[in-house]
Write a structure and sequence with these properties.
This protein is an alpha/beta fold and 938 residues long.
Length: 938
């Protein structure tokens, strides 16, 4: 992505603000050391000019950070003016090191102008710290004030004097004087946790910020150009909350504070104060607000529980760790894991702990905090993975006979969820990426056509839910708002389940948040409440009518809007917290934003009882609590850094003259067909691409590519995905995620560092150099063999099979246009071994039956890894393309396929038998969801 305008780094290039700032300090450090070396050799040079030029680039950025702050920056400038090259070198080295290590957050000496922190005496300490402050959490608070820049240091000093030794945390003020500067600070400074806004602030920044102004012009709801000076404060609060909803906002005004505090338009403001008459109250509220996010109810109680002297007489010998620490044979277990792990184990739900099944104490509060963090009405903790989270939702909101539109390539837990609940899958196909042996995402047109087909056949009332994977394994992100908006125009009470197992981190990115299930649900609620919503619907109704005609071809082409008076917002989102946040493996949540949740709350409770363990892992629960704390306090900065890491990998691979000959990271132009990228966006690193270019794609395109998920093509280096993944793991200690026939998936997350990037680049270079050496040694024969191997991996790829259909015996109406079927009935039919047969995959019998019959009907799920989705489901008629694809697979792991016996098929003579658990009658509209939950499968 282009970070410059006429060669000058853009201040509002938001994707790489953290890394760019540190890089600039490192550049200044290098130039300062060069100048210092010149001074030591008494040699004239351009060192000072280079330092001054580098410092000019830093000045604009440093206005938005507390450290090093105006005092140290002024001292640095004075040393340069006095030609003190050695002093400048020492000071820049110390500041740069403090920024890199973060030591300024707990070491008061870093704020002093002396070059040696050890020389600092208590009376010379900055007012920021005192001797006992080293363990106190540090953050920064943004003050947006109209006072002149010259007076801001005085205000900052007054705030520091409010600190008390018993404050649990410590913060440094960041002072800015305009709306635009406040937005820049919010975007650039991830250490900011609270914002205090004074009324009457001006709008324009003193800095050159064209991209920010372009953004403001495109968002009419954030336009402050015509706002009265007295109204700017509330508007700014809305803008900041839109960017970083986790921040605490405070407003200081001399208006009628009572009226303003009760105004729904100011609901995002935590507290309104009357000017500065209560500055201590402002200070205390800042601390209390951050402390509320810092609080982890379950983890805090678990720590207290572990510190108590408790005798255990329950069924958990590892609790307290005595059976381990006193053992002659497994003491190394205790030494490896540490004693706290066992002190914090218990099967009790009393004594300060709580029950996962019936939370009434700290788990309940922890779940409520997580709901606040992700923008949900309810959150439920799950300690056995998102597979269970998905199945809980199916059992809570669907019943036997309900129809569910589902991506055929979704995770197996969705398919099994429908087997358990009795809902019938109506599979829709994602667009294929045959060259890379993977599927993308399901086009909205396909979903709309399926719904309109149901409406045409008079069965739309049977459709209960749409479930889609967002983002997909390979990084395809849906336009969640648009999908729900148009689907609700056809069926206004439709439920949506967004499987965001890989996308939980996106909540903390203003760039990605609008494409999450919860983010889009909030936006839909906001749209519905606006006067424009009804106007848009009435204009549509005047053109195409209120009762949509499913035969009207215009419906597939136009952007449909729902009737705001009838639409219900019913959204479920499942997140694998452990996949993208700092939670232990299997830590997951179900997030609920469903206006009709009360109608099936008891069913959801039953689903929890069915699937949740009665012995949940305390440490997983605690890690969910802690993951929420971390993301609410530093998630914005961490996610931004993960995106920076991904862009660094893309750039390093794409620009390296040797690596790029054999490897490449696919951009949106390769992963998303042009018809779904109407913005014209091609890749983050395409020439001329800016932050606004990417933002336009996020808003407009049907699919967007998650920047943190990178498909690295290795087939052009002569490696299939599985072999390349094995090579990296066994020889270089680099672990990858998913593989395809000719690629591997890299995923950057909040755990990755630039050192990880350096290792990856070094390894790719080494492998590329080895290839070049082998090609040079092998001569023409070697090059021909290499080319043939690349061709087999990149060109001779099997076509991807689509879902065929369910056998007529598992369909209520074989003549229906739609392809739903009773997968549950087929699943349980396969339990009767006498009613099944096995045919080897390579057997001629397969080909004979494909040509002449009888039909091949799958008895179970067949899931090859990769690609990791079912190519056969129970009751599916197996066709030639599926057999051909499976025969060409060169993977070792195929779930559901018995290599010794072959494909498991249901005998046609057995289809239609009365198996227990076979096809259920459609659920009536009045059927109790509690009844649906407790029905047994067999």
């Amino acid at each position: 992505m282009d970070t410059t305008v006429t060669g000058t780094p853009q201040l509002d290039h938001f994707f790489s603000s953290s890394a760019a700032r540190l890089d600039r300090w490192r550049e200044l450090h290098a130039k300062a050391q060069t100048w210092a070396a010149e001074a030591q050799r008494a040699k004239a040079g351009s060192g000072r000019a280079a330092v001054e030029a580098a410092l000019v680039e830093l000045y604009a950025l440093e206005d938005f950070f507390a450290y090093p702050g105006p005092r140290l920056m002024k001292a640095l400038a004075e040393r340069i003016s006095s030609d003190d090259a050695l002093g400048v070198g020492r000071m820049v080295r110390r500041i740069s090191g403090a920024l890199l290590s973060g030591s300024y957050r707990y070491d008061g000496g870093e704020w002093e102008m002396t070059d040696d922190a050890a020389e600092t005496t208590p009376e010379r300490l900055s007012p920021t710290f005192s001797g006992g402050d080293t363990q106190r959490p540090y953050f920064e608070t943004l003050f947006v004030t109209p006072v002149p820049a010259a007076s801001r240091a005085k205000t900052a000093g007054e705030l520091r004097r409010l600190r008390r030794t018993d404050d649990a945390m410590i913060y440094e003020p960041v002072m800015v004087g305009s709306v635009e500067d406040a937005l820049l600070a919010t975007i650039l400074n991830g250490k900011i946790e609270a914002v205090v806004i004074f009324d009457g602030i001006p709008v324009p920044s003193q800095h050159d910020v064209p991209l920010l102004r372009d953004l403001l012009r495109t968002r009419t709801e954030l336009d402050v150009s015509n706002a009265a000076p007295r109204e700017v404060g509330v508007t700014l609060a809305k803008m900041i909350k839109h960017i970083r909803p986790e921040l605490d906002l405070y407003l200081l005004t001399d208006r009628n504070v009572e009226k303003l505090a009760g105004d729904p338009a100011a609901s995002m403001i935590r507290r309104v104060f009357y000017e500065v008459e209560e500055l201590m109250e402002v200070h205390l509220n800042i601390l209390e607000g951050v402390a509320d996010r810092f609080s982890t109810p379950f983890f805090d109680n678990l720590k207290r529980y572990a510190a108590r002297p408790i005798a255990t007489f329950h069924a958990l010998p590892v609790a307290r760790g005595k059976s381990i620490m006193k053992s002659n044979w497994i003491r190394d277990m205790g030494e490896f894991y540490g004693q706290n792990l066992f002190l914090a184990e218990s099967s009790a739900t009393t004594g300060g702990l709580d029950s996962m099944l019936e939370p009434t104490g700290n788990i309940k509060v922890a779940q409520e905090k997580f709901a606040r963090a992700v923008g949900a009405d309810h959150v439920f903790f799950v300690t056995n993975g998102t597979s269970t989270s998905n199945k809980m939702v199916y059992q809570a909101v669907t019943a036997p006979g309900d129809l569910v539109i589902a991506d055929r390539n979704c995770h197996k837990s969705h398919h099994y969820g429908m087997v358990l609940s009795g809902a019938q899958p109506l599979y829709v196909e994602a667009f294929p990426m045959t060259e890379y042996s993977m599927y993308g995402a399901v086009p909205l047109r396909t979903i709309k056509q399926t719904m309109l087909n149901l409406k045409a056949e008079g069965r739309l009332d049977r459709l209960k839910m749409v479930t889609l994977t967002n983002c997909t394994f390979d990084g395809h992100i849906y336009n969640t708002y648009r999908v729900m908006e148009e689907c609700l125009a056809i069926k206004p009470d439709l439920i949506f389940l967004w499987d965001e197992a890989w996308f939980g981190f996106a909540r903390w990115s203003p760039f990605l948040r609008p494409r999450t299930g919860m983010g889009a649900a909030a936006a839909l609620e906001q749209w519905r409440a606006s006067p424009d919503a009804l106007k848009a619907y009435e204009a549509q109704a005047a053109e195409i009518g209120e009762d949509l005609d499913p035969k009207d071809a215009r419906l597939l082409k136009r952007h449909l809007v729902p009737d705001p008076r009838k639409m219900r917002i019913r959204v479920y989102e499942t997140d694998s917290v452990h996949k993208s946040m700092s939670a232990l493996r299997q830590g997951s949540i179900v997030a609920v934003r469903d206006e009709d949740y009360k109608h099936h709350a008891s069913a959801f409770r039953e689903a929890v009882f069915i699937h949740a363990s009665t012995s949940p892992n305390q440490q997983i629960i605690a890690s969910l609590d802690l993951a929420r704390r971390q993301m609410e306090l530093e998630g914005y900065e961490l996610v931004m850094r993960a995106i920076e890491t991904a862009l660094a990998i893309r750039r390093a691979v794409g620009e390296h003259p040797i690596i790029s000959k054999y490897f490449r990271v696919l951009g949106a132009d390769a992963m998303v067909p042009a018809e779904y990228r109407t913005s014209g966006f091609k890749d983050f690193l395409a020439p001329g691409t800016t932050w606004m270019t990417a933002l336009k794609s996020v808003r407009e395109d049907e699919f967007f590519l998650d920047p943190t998920r990178m498909t690295l093509v290795c087939g052009t280096a002569g490696y299939d995905g599985t072999a390349f993944k094995g090579l990296l793991a066994s020889k270089y200690n680099i672990q990858m995620n998913k593989t395809s026939r000719n690629s591997v998936l890299l995923q950057s997350n909040i755990n990755n560092t630039r050192s990880d990037v350096a290792l990856l680049v070094k390894v790719l270079l080494e492998i590329s150099q080895d290839i070049e050496a082998e090609l040079a040694e092998g001569g023409e024969t070697g090059r021909a063999a290499f080319a043939a191997k690349v061709k087999s991996l990149m060109t001779d790829v099997p076509d991807l099979p689509n879902f065929s259909r369910f056998h007529d015996g598992y369909r209520e109406d074989p003549n229906s246009v739609t392809l739903e079927g009773d997968m549950r009935g087929a699943f349980f039919a396969a339990y009767e071994e006498d009613d099944c047969e096995y045919v080897p995959l390579m057997s001629p019998k397969i080909d004979e039956r494909l040509k002449s019959g009888p039909q091949l009907v799958s008895a179970n799920f067949v899931i090859p890894y990769p690609p990791g989705f079912p190519i056969m489901v129970p009751g599916q008629v197996i066709e030639a393309d599926t057999i051909g694809f499976m025969r060409k697979l060169d993977v070792k792991e195929i779930h559901g396929y018995n290599n010794a016996r072959g494909l498991k098929l249901i005998k046609l003579s057995a289809i239609g038998k009365a198996h227990s658990g076979a096809k259920a009658a459609p659920a009536s509209a009045a059927q109790s969801k509690g009844t649906a939950i407790t029905k047994k499968g067999r």
